[in-house]
Amino acid sequence: MQPSDAHHQATGNKTNNNNFKELFKTELTNETNLKVSKHAETRFQQRGISLSNEVWKKVENAVDHARTKGVTEALVLTKEAALVVSTKNKLVITALDRKSAEEQIFTNINGTILIEK
Questions:
Q1: Residue-number span of the structural domain to which 61 is assigned
Q2: Average pLDDT over residues 1-11
Q3: What are the start and end residues of every segment in region (Disordered) (predicted)?
Q4: Which carries the bigger pLDDT value, residue 100 or residue 27?
Q5: Predicted model pTM
Q6: CA–CA distance from 84 to each of 45, 49, 67, 68, 94 (Å)?
Q7: Which residues contact 9 (CB under 8 A, 6 or more apart)?
Q8: Sign of the C-alpha dihedral, residues 24, 31, 51, 92?
Q9: Is residue 26 assigned to a domain?
């Protein structure tokens, strides 16, 4: 192996290391993000539901916390909406505005999260 080859290989490994670190960091960041199902996306639009970035971040954090406690399907109540979330898949399954949620019975959930602020 030529000295220049060794240098290239070393810098190549450093680049791969940096790429891996960035990919790992991105995956960790994505780990906390909630996805929204097509059905829930439609319900958000149809029902005029809008959550601020601050509230959405609180929902994400609460869902992550609930997941660590063994909750797999959660009802998340905010001032604006009621969301049914799969904590296992980090997926919002459906959404209702709070007024509509008052008249509903939620089944197949094993945890409730209240976010009032």
A1: 33-114
A2: 48
A3: 1-20
A4: 100
A5: 0.72
A6: 16, 14, 14, 17, 5
A7: 1
A8: positive
A9: no
pLDDT at 7: 47
Q: pLDDT tens digit string along 31-56?
A: 558 999 999 999 999 999 999 999 99
Domain count, the chain: 1
Residue 79 lies in a domain: yes
- The residue type found at 37 is S
The answer to whether residue 8 is domain-embedded is no
Residue 25 within any structural domain of the chain: no
Bridge partners, residue 92, by sequence = 36, 85
